[in-house]
Design brief:
heterodimer; A: 299 residues; mainly alpha; 2 domains; two-stranded antiparallel sheet; 1% strand; B: 802 residues; alpha+beta; FAD/NAD(P)-binding domain; Jelly Rolls; 7-stranded mixed β-sheet; 5-stranded parallel β-sheet; 22 helices; 43 strands; 28% helix; 24% strand; globular
């Protein structure tokens, strides 16, 4: 597989990983300060260092949340979105260390620990996101083989039209079967179907007893099996080659549907990740506000 | 035989003809307006319903008895209908003039129906579209035969035969095939003239059976078949014998006969053989036939208001009255800051006298050129353009001097004097300026936009010759930084040849005898090597550079092949002509040897990197060989969030000028549908108000004076121009975030506030008016989107091999 082109600079590699170094420096400074600091009471959020680390952590959270605003500020010239994402990833990782040191390792069943747990969840999800973003695009690209998604859909439809034409002169049941598979072809579906890449298409096959119930036809498998069966039994030297070419077309369609479903699944997972990461971040923001307000109230 | 006698005959009822006839009617002159079709203003009538007709140039006053202002098509046509009636214009529709003979005061106009019109003078205003080519078989005049299709949806369940194999025929056939049984008749075995998109669509339709096609077939005759289900029978000559098709309708799209033939038959002279040449006219629109006036688009004035003014003026001139042209105040204002203190006519005469280039240019063309140009009187030392600017206008020095700074640090200085011109390099090649131009003392220059000067070059052979020669001399000067004298270079230039190559054509093959060098004047070329039995691209050479330098140094065989990526022009220089220069200049030989060394090293680097070569080939196939700046997306980084499209739409009136998903990919490099700012932009080819310009940084952009005609959208082979109206403003970000008012940032904008709003052409302008560079690139969250120039393709490709 081709490597990344040298001219394209990924968000993680942005400007020689500038924000990785910033994040490392921040982490190192926090750890050193924590090790050097020896307060009269056990380390906690209430000492001067605790307050400092807490303030830094809260500001970091606001900065990380601001990515959502910067991403939508299309006129903004404050850095590039790619640079912001770079900072978001590396500073988000540093936040784990800064915030943990801020707690002084005091946890309990309270709103303070809730904020901490939410933060850890958001960051853990963030790491999942980094992995998805790093892996999926290349896999999607290989899967699509240089074509656009619309072209994949077009290919599926095109193969349908060709199959119908080939089926036209065959006995009526073939046209009925192909038409039914086309009518009951489901390319989209609900969130779960999309995420798992399942194919919930169905087909009504003309059975020996006349009309029968719709059967599951994932990736045209049922139709292919039925056509194979008909071909095996076919005695007619005129009809057999036509069934054969019908089978070839439907098999090609299977490959196209698989590709399309995979592409949609990849995209759905990338989208779904954002639907978890962002609402959880807002929950974190709420918990953080509760934490800060309550600390100042009870102080 | 019917004859009629008038004082003024006006031929063609477009804006110019209507205006001329109405003015003649106003003056009480016996006149007749002849129009071949059944109605006036055909071109405007063919616009889609409700289309806005714009009234550019805004500064030009209208001089016509008929009304005209920017409005929807219907209002413009109604105004003219009313005007024709009010002024009692004598018009005859369905009267096609087939020949004009004689001269003032005895013209005979022969009409198609055999009648003759006698006139003292003739105003010819037939436009440039020409008459459609006829089928030329018996039955071609039957009611079932038509030569245009206005609305494909108007026909249902008919059997229709479309004759022709060009884009018009294919587009008609495809549109009709939705509701009718359509059959195409193609004289050839394939559709070689069709655009890529039409070609694949028509082949697909034929394969799918939604359209049938007779190849290698031509029409033999058409007969009415009374009583049959289909009213007519078309007989075809096919390569397997005669075939017969029953049909209701035949649509022939065989192209048009350009009006030039008709004009030449009338005795009107042209300055040269180029198909784009305009007829020779006096400054009173009078052609080489006394009393025959040519106005409107046919005379080179494509805008409605100009044409209407000329119709009026031509009638005045024909009465022997010298009216002041409508554009006189514009020129007067333009000349006001000049130090000459002359009248408009005086200043024009001065320009003509001082600039030898314009010696052969007739006064009307010169006036038009100056009108389309800007006159500058800059202070000494002012920079007119900088090295590496992408501007492409052409400068003529009317007074004082200009200093050109060439070379990497501007070390080479050339002084240009009054009467000389400069800027032809970028004009012809579409590349960056090779040096900087600084105004000298008392400097007055005429800056002519690209379109105006190209129009002049195609009309006046002398201008083309002089500009071409100087281009070659200056190209040699800047390519080889030689200090050879002008006369020496002139001898070299005299031996140079101008070559034109089609896309994909070879300049020369590896192993062939090497006897000349090619300076790439426009377009670009790829250098290829035969490696392991296949062609591997080793480098990309843009216009303004040279290839085949080995040919100059007495080496005998080509070490690589060179292929044109796009339509390319080169100037080839023979080794023999260059020998004298080399003999005098040892440093020159060394410089060329350096270039050869670099090329060979690059070839060696690319060897074995077959995927890199394939990637460059792929990029060239996408037409990027003529690009100056292209959006490329790395598919291994792109998550498909479409933030690039959203950013584009948000910063540009709600319409994204790029389509991320569309377009092909190779080796994970995706070429989305987005403007690549061609060196020689196709969109500029036919822009009536000359609204498409190139900014100093290379952006090809559309100015506000766009009239929404859609020519650029049709002319762009890459489909990156759209016709769109601005969408309403969105609520601010915080209102969306906190109050939920929509549509949010990046969301789909609502429909334009006024559904009748004028649509104008929109395209990528590289965010030239925003800070920070292109919004699409700045908005990409993963770094997948970049904009680069083709010079970096090799660098890009190097990274693609592991």
């Amino acid at each position: 597989m081709a490597a990344m082109s040298s001219i394209h600079e990924s968000a993680l590699a942005y400007r020689g990983r500038r924000y990785l170094w910033v994040a490392l420096a921040l982490t190192a400074a926090s750890v050193l300060a924590y090790a050097w600091h020896s307060p009269a009471v056990p380390p906690n959020g209430g000492t001067w260092l605790g307050y400092t680390l807490g303030t830094v952590a809260a500001l970091l959270i606001l900065l990380l949340l601001a990515l959502g605003i910067r991403k939508r500020s299309y006129h903004s010239t404050l850095g590039t979105v790619s640079g912001w994402v770079s900072a978001h990833v590396y500073l988000g990782l540093a936040l784990v260390v800064v915030a943990t040191l801020h707690t002084g390792f005091h946890f309990g069943r309270n709103v303070h620990t809730l904020a901490y747990v939410l933060m850890c969840l958001v960051i853990a999800l963030g790491i999942v996101g980094v992995v998805l973003y790093a892996r999926y695009p290349a896999r999607m690209s290989v899967n699509r083989q240089g074509r656009a998604r619309a072209q994949l859909v077009e290919e599926v439809n095109d193969l349908n039209a060709r199959a119908l034409r080939v089926a036209q002169p065959l006995p009526a049941e073939f046209l009925a079967a192909v038409r039914s598979a086309r009518d009951r072809l489901v390319l989209g579906g609900n969130a779960w179907t999309l995420l798992t890449g399942r194919d919930r298409s169905r087909v009504v096959l003309p059975g020996s007893d006349g009309a029968s119930a719709p059967l599951a036809n994932p990736f045209q498998a049922t139709l292919i099996a039925w056509l194979g069966d008909r071909l095996a039994r076919c005695q007619d030297g005129e009809v057999a080659p036509r069934i054969q070419s019908l089978l070839t077309l439907i098999s090609a369609q299977r490959v196209a549907i698989e590709r399309l479903k995979r592409d949609l699944a990849f995209q759905a997972r990338l989208d779904a990740w954002l639907y978890l990461h962002v609402p959880l971040s807002f929950a974190l923001l709420a918990a953080l506000l509760a934490h800060v307000v309550s600390v100042f109230l009870y102080w | 035989m019917l004859t009629e006698r008038v004082s003024i005959a006006v031929i063609g009822a477009g804006p110019a003809g209507l205006s001329a006839a109405a003015h003649a009617a106003d003056l009480g002159i016996p006149h007749l307006l002849l129009e071949a079709s059944p109605g006036h203003a055909n071109t405007i009538r063919k616009y889609q319903k409700g289309k806005h007709v714009m009234a550019e140039p805004g500064a030009l006053p209208l001089r016509s008895p008929l009304p005209f202002a920017a409005a929807v098509r219907e209002a413009v046509l109604e105004g003219w209908d009313a005007g024709l009636a009010a002024h009692r214009v004598n018009v005859r529709y369905g009267a096609e003039a087939v020949a004009i003979s004689g001269s003032r005061p005895q013209f005979q106009i022969a009409l198609k129906d055999g009648s003759v019109v006698h006139a003292e003078c003739v105003v010819l205003a037939i436009g440039v579209q020409g008459n459609p080519r006829k089928l030329g078989v018996s039955g071609e005049d039957l009611a079932c035969v038509q030569y245009q299709l206005d609305d494909a949806d108007a026909y249902r369940d008919e059997a229709i035969v479309v004759v022709g194999a060009g884009d018009a025929a294919i587009e008609n056939a495809l549109a009709l095939s939705k509701r009718n049984r359509v059959c195409l008749v193609n004289r050839a075995a394939e559709f070689s003239r069709a655009k890529e998109g039409n070609l694949s669509a028509v082949l697909k339709a034929i394969e799918a059976g939604t359209l049938s096609c007779f190849f290698k077939s031509s029409c033999a005759r058409i007969e009415a078949s009374a009583g049959a289900q289909r009213g007519y029978r078309l007989t075809l000559d096919t390569d397997t014998g005669e075939a017969s098709v029953a049909c209701d309708r035949i649509i022939a799209r065989l192209g048009a006969i350009p009006p030039r033939q008709f004009l030449e038959a009338c005795g009107v002279g042209f300055p040269g053989p180029q198909p784009t040449a305009l007829p020779i006219l006096s400054d009173q629109y009078e052609s080489s036939v006394p009393g025959l006036y040519v106005v409107g688009a046919l005379a080179g004035y494509p805008l409605i208001k100009q044409a209407m003014n000329q119709g009026y003026e031509a009638v005045e001139y024909s009465r022997g009255r010298a009216v002041e042209p409508a554009d006189e105040p514009i020129l007067r204002e333009r000349f006001a800051p000049l130090p000459f203190g002359l009248t408009v006519a005086g200043t024009l005469a001065l320009i003509r006298e001082r600039v030898p280039l314009f010696a052969e240019v007739n006064p009307l063309l010169l006036r038009e050129l100056v009108l389309g140009s800007e006159v500058h009187a800059p202070a000494s030392g002012t920079v007119l353009f900088r090295k590496n600017d992408y501007t492409n206008s052409f400068y003529t020095i009317i007074n004082g001097g200009v200093d050109m700074e060439l070379g990497d640090e501007g070390q080479q200085r050339i002084a240009l004097r009054q009467g000389q011109f400069f800027g032809e390099g970028s004009l012809l090649s579409g590349r960056r300026r090779a040096g900087s131009a600084l105004a000298g003392a008392g400097c007055v220059v005429l800056e002519t936009p690209r379109r105006e000067i190209l129009k002049l070059m195609s009309s006046v052979d002398g201008v083309r010759r002089v500009v071409d020669e100087l281009f070659i001399i200056r190209a040699i000067q800047s390519s080889f930084a030689t200090d050879a004298s002008f006369d020496e270079l002139r001898t070299v230039a005299a031996g140079a040849r101008l070559n034109r190559y089609r896309p994909g054509e070879m300049l020369f093959e590896e192993g062939a005898v090497a006897d000349c060098l090619h300076l790439v004047r426009s377009g670009s070329v790829a250098v290829l090597r035969q490696l392991g039995g296949r062609d591997v691209v080793t480098s990309y050479v843009a216009a303004g550079n040279y290839v085949g330098e080995i040919g100059l140094l007495g080496r005998t065989r080509r070490t690589a092949s060179v292929r044109a990526n796009v339509a390319t022009e080169t100037v080839s220089i023979d080794a023999a002509a260059f020998d004298q220069l080399l003999a005098r200049n040892a440093a020159l030989r060394e410089r060329i040897q350096d270039t050869i060394r670099e090329r060979l090293a690059a070839n060696a680097r690319m060897q074995g990197q077959t995927q890199a070569g394939d990637l460059i080939s792929f990029l060239m196939q996408q037409g990027l060989g003529e690009a100056t700046d292209v959006l490329l997306i790395n598919e291994s980084l792109c998550v498909g969030c479409d933030n690039c499209e959203k950013a584009c739409a948000e910063t540009h009136g709600g319409t994204s000028r790029l389509d991320r998903g569309a377009g092909p990919s190779f080796a994970q490099v995706h070429v989305p549908t987005s403007c690549r700012h061609c060196e020689d932009p196709h969109c500029m080819t036919d822009c009536p108000p000359d609204a498409i310009r190139r900014a100093p940084d290379g952006e090809v952009y559309i100015r506000d004076n766009c009239i929404g005609c859609g020519n650029c959208e049709r002319n762009c082979p890459y489909g990156v121009i759209q016709m769109a109206a601005a969408t309403p403003a969105k609520p601010p970000l915080l209102a969306w975030l906190l109050l939920g008012s929509g549509p949010g940032p990046g969301g789909v904008a609502g429909a334009p506030a006024d559904p009748q709003a004028a649509k104008k052409a929109v395209k990528c302008d590289m965010c030239k008016d925003l800070g920070g560079g292109p919004a699409c690139v700045r908005a990409c969250p993963t770094g997948a989107a970049i904009r680069i120039s083709p010079e970096r393709f090799v660098e890009l490709a190097h990274g693609s091999d592991v």
